[in-house]
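ingest -> validate -> predict -> emit
validate: passed (alphabet ok, no gaps, 159 aa)
predict: started
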Amino acid sequence: MFTLSKVSLDRLKGVHPKLIEIAQSALQISTYDFGIAWMGGLRTEEDQRKLMKTGASRTMKSKHMKQSDGYGHAFDVLPYLNNTPTVNASSDIYSSIVVSVAKCAQALNVKIKWGGCWACINTCRNVQDVKTLMESYNTLCMKNGKKPFVDMPHFELMP
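emit:
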């Protein structure tokens, strides 16, 4: 069983308590260890602007920024393999983490959205679901003439 490090917990300061609970619970049941990525919690407007300039984000209306309730409504995970942070982890690793996060969100009756399939809310019950949902999202984007924006580490709170 894995637990969030002090660094990851610090990165979650200012994030909605329900999301923190989901991240902690998901890590306890996850097959893979993960932490919270640098700038993976609450962001300032300046932080977000920098990420926009580098192409790491597409919006200045990020759920990572403080929302009307005073909390950030998103977190980004960073998988660990052999105790080493792995930015470019495989889709299988992310899929497994997604299933853990979705299960915990469902158990806590919290609606979340995942950055690998922006149209999906709490629907990832197993790894095959994750792959199918990603394919459906990509197909839908292409059908509508849009380039898919896949942000595998990202989870956000839904109203």
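The domain at 6-157 is CATH 3.30.1380.10 (Muramoyl-pentapeptide Carboxypeptidase; domain 2).
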